[in-house]
Design goal:
Layout: H1 6-19, E1 30-32, E2 37-39, H2 46-52, H3 81-90, H4 92-102, H5 111-123, H6 133-142, H7 145-148, H8 170-179, H9 181-191, H10 202-215, H11 229-238, H12 241-245, H13 267-288, H14 299-309, H15 319-328, H16 331-334, H17 361-370, H18 372-381, H19 393-408
Antiparallel strand pairs: 1-2
Helix pairs in contact: 2-5, 3-17, 5-17, 6-10, 8-10, 8-13, 11-14, 15-19
The structure holds heme C (HEC) (4 copies).
């Protein structure tokens, strides 16, 4: 099976992102449990901000668009919110030079906007690549589907799959396969067939093949319901996943912590993972008396969006390490922060102890971004190197600033 060239996949992914924009407009957000992160109900909504804030003037998405700045999307970002934030921060000097050259103002970002933008950049991977019908035909044969199913030529051991064609999304196909899983597996067991398992891309290819067979030609229509991660959290509880994996998917008795599993993949790739584990899970479910969950409408898409965003939420940071970062990255040279003020900080920047700048991950990122041009002038003016941040740095910094803020608060 050959994958289509990257540029084709990229362009198509961008087209998907744009096509899915039609589905904008939802409002309200729920917190990603425990992390202080409010996820947007429509992760593609940030596309609008990306244009409105001028990012699109310099950055292409997934291979399309301008290329003054690096192309974003397509496996670019896989870290948590604050890890992505750190990467944005590290590029401030390079980016602001191009802003100056282009005569563009530095775009101010509010807290919610920062979340929407980074969630959007993170989400691009979710769209995956469009399926390739010829590859889908191979999957259909190799995985034994063809043994039991026809497409548009009547019922075999299993139903004719032509009806699936109405629903262009690979997630819809995945949902149907999942819902019929137990009976399909029973029928395979009877015939002594091995259960099918899917690799990344297989479900997208299968969906493309089904569509092509049913309609007799390649179709342009590729509408992937983006999925609402907040609603997906509810689905996770309602379908009993939380019984084994814990309320926030952080692991439970005998079931893995799903935030530690590599789920930052395309949506159909996550669906494939779920299916592949379905056999083992099914036995556990029977033991625990949890029925095989059946998904309707956009439920699987929502659930998968929720799983996809699990690694996006930052774990609590380590304030002691944050204090080291604060000192070693020269923040303490300009900002007083409680105990470090005693060290004689010159207060060339605002006091960060007691400030609300670290109230949430998004608040911290927005504050750092909005003040970045002034800070850049101050930092480079003192001939200090730009304080690069990596990995858990920002998470730990926030924990440290949060502790200082608590200490600075007047006693009740
Ligand atoms: C005037 C052009 C310009 C605009 C507008 C712009 N950027 Fe950039 N951006 C750049 C350049 C140039 C770099 C590379 C800087 C460097 O290498 O340090 C960059 C780097 C980045 C990076 C790091 C990419 C990587 O490879 O890790 C991110 C993320 C980013 N920009 C996001 C944004 C966002 C979000 C916006 C809108 C708020 C934006 N940019 C607006 C020019 C721009
Ligand atoms: C051993 C026979 C067998 C094999 C092999 C098989 N299926 Fe099925 N499939 C069935 C049966 C039987 C049903 C109906 C189950 C039910 O009614 O719940 C079904 C149902 C389905 C449905 C739901 C169809 C609908 O109209 O509701 C889909 C989608 C599907 N199969 C896809 C696949 C795919 C894709 C493969 C290959 C990976 C596959 N099946 C392999 C027997 C099989
Ligand atoms: C009865 C307990 C139980 C229930 C209910 C359950 N799971 Fe699981 N799940 C497990 C176990 C055990 C594993 C590990 C199986 C394995 O290693 O193959 C697992 C594995 C997984 C994996 C793969 C993790 C990896 O390592 O790649 C995913 C994804 C997953 N579950 C999602 C879900 C979702 C979504 C639901 C609800 C629709 C759910 N699970 C319901 C017990 C359960
Ligand atoms: C050379 C001096 C200097 C250094 C070093 C410096 N800053 Fe700043 N910082 C400033 C100045 C000046 C401002 C105010 C900018 C403005 O008003 O736009 C500021 C503003 C901020 C704000 C916004 C405060 C608020 O109340 O909204 C945050 C957050 C911040 N800095 C964090 C940091 C962190 C974290 C570091 C270390 C990685 C750091 N700064 C390093 C000078 C500095």
């Amino acid at each position: 099976m050959t994958a289509p060239p990257r540029s084709v996949r990229a362009a198509a992914a961008a087209a998907l992102a744009l096509a899915a924009l039609g589905a904008l407009g939802a409002t309200g957000a729920a917190a990603q449990a425990g992390s202080g992160l409010e996820l947007p109900p429509d992760p593609l909504g940030g596309r609008v901000l990306f244009a409105a804030k001028g990012c699109a003037q310099c950055h292409g998405i997934a291979g399309r668009g301008r290329s003054i700045g690096p192309n974003l999307g397509e496996g670019h970002f896989s870290g948590s919110f604050l890890e992505l934030g750190a990467s944005l921060w590290n590029h401030v000097p390079g980016m602001s030079v191009t802003f100056d050259v282009a005569g563009l103002p530095w775009p101010e970002l509010e807290e919610g906007e920062m979340t929407e933008l980074l969630a959007f950049l993170y989400f691009i991977e979710y769209l995956g690549r469009p399926g390739v019908a010829a590859a889908g035909q191979e999957v259909f044969a190799d995985q034994g589907c063809a043994f039991c199913h026809e497409i548009g030529a009547g019922e075999g051991i299993g139903p004719d799959l032509a009806g699936l064609e109405r629903f262009a999304s690979p997630l819809y196909v995945a949902q149907e396969i999942w819902n019929h899983g137990p009976r399909m597996l029973a029928s395979m067991r009877e015939l002594g067939m091995r259960a099918p398992s899917f690799a990344e891309g297989d479900l997208a290819d299968l969906a493309a093949y089904v569509r092509q067979q049913a309609e007799g030609g390649a179709q342009e229509r590729l509408l992937l319901a983006p999925g609402d991660p907040n609603r997906g959290h509810e689905v996770f509880a309602a379908k009993g996943c939380s019984k084994c994996h814990g309320r926030d998917a952080r692991g439970g008795e005998d079931a893995p912590d799903l935030s530690q599993v590599d789920l930052h993949r395309s949506a159909e790739g996550i669906a494939a993972t779920m299916w592949n584990h379905g056999l083992v899970m099914g036995d556990f479910m029977r033991e625990r008396g949890v029925g095989w969950p059946i998904f309707e409408d956009s439920e699987l898409a929502d659930l998968i969006a929720y799983l996809f965003f699990l690694p996006f939420a930052d774990l609590p940071g380590d304030p002691a390490r944050g204090a080291e970062v604060f000192a070693s990255r020269s923040c303490a040279d300009c900002h007083a922060a409680g105990e470090l003020a005693a060290g004689g900080a010159a207060e060339k920047g605002p006091r960060l102890a007691g400030s609300t700048a670290a109230a949430s991950p998004a608040a911290l990122m927005a504050a750092m971004w909005n003040h970045a041009p002034m800070m850049k002038t101050a930092i480079l003016g003192e001939a200090l190197p730009w304080p690069e941040l990596a990995g858990a740095d920002l998470r730990d910094l926030r924990a440290f600033l949060g502790r200082q803020a608590a200490a600075a608060a007047p006693p009740p």
